[in-house]
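Could you join me in thinking about how sequence relates to backbone shape in a protein? To get us started, please write out a protein record for me. Would you write everything just below, so we can both look at the same thing?
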Amino acid sequence: MVSESHTGRAYRGERAARAQEARIAAIAERQYGIVTRDQLLGEGFSGDSIDRRLAADRLHPVYRGVYAVGHRLLPTRGRWLAAVFAGGPGAVLSHRAAAALWDLAAIPAITDVTCRSHRRSRPGLRMHEAELPADEITVEQSIPVTTVARTAFDLAAVDDRHRLERTINEAERRALASPTSLAVLLDRHPARRGSVNLRAILAAGQIGRGVAASELELRFASFLDQRGFPRPEHNAPVEAAGRRFVADCLWRSQRLIAELDGHAFHADRESYEGDRARDRVLVAAGWRIVRVTWRQLQNEPDRLAADLRAALARATP
């Protein structure tokens, strides 16, 4: 009986240990192979159990309180996310590292992170202190990061004009939209280093030159045909509140409008506000509006298709 009881306890202990390791693995799988001490404590692990895993080389320190699971080798996005975690709550990937995440630049040797409070830089990791508004940050590929516009705005402080203009044009070509345009950010932060170069680039009016206006429209039309969607009206007239608008793509019977968002950088504040006022009038008149970007077509076609299909199925009387 003693032997059986001991065996049973041993079995239960092994099963509990496997369950714990599975919980750690599940977190790491979502985060490019890393976990944080706070996350493990939140999952019910004790500080001693975390330290034992560190001693047994099942967790490997990357930064203080940030660990690689199982081995020290991390993919680039794992190193970026670890750096963001090291920056504390509210930290985001920024500057050239953010540009690399947005696929607008090569992967830099140094990872830049913008934090809410002062954090010490260290080899390979450069910390910037700033309290960023909610419309200047986002999450891309599960990594908190500055928006494309804010990324370009930050690069203005560290890149020469030629390199900055090339980055902005590439973002414009791919129609990587942001909640705020560069013009809005310049008004919001007028004394920021690099603003002179940025204003000169915007004033030159060369951003987006050579980018076909219909490129995104053609890509979206092909996407709809390939996925078997009913064909919408293109550049269709819509009347609301006594005003006449033109919708990029219109499913009239479903009262659904798809607007193709591009030209994120050279739009001024008046244009940005005008688009949102237009949306408000149309929504008040019973139309539903979805906005589609180049990045969504390129990187999230399945999710975009599912959302559009659901929106079309929910017809408005």
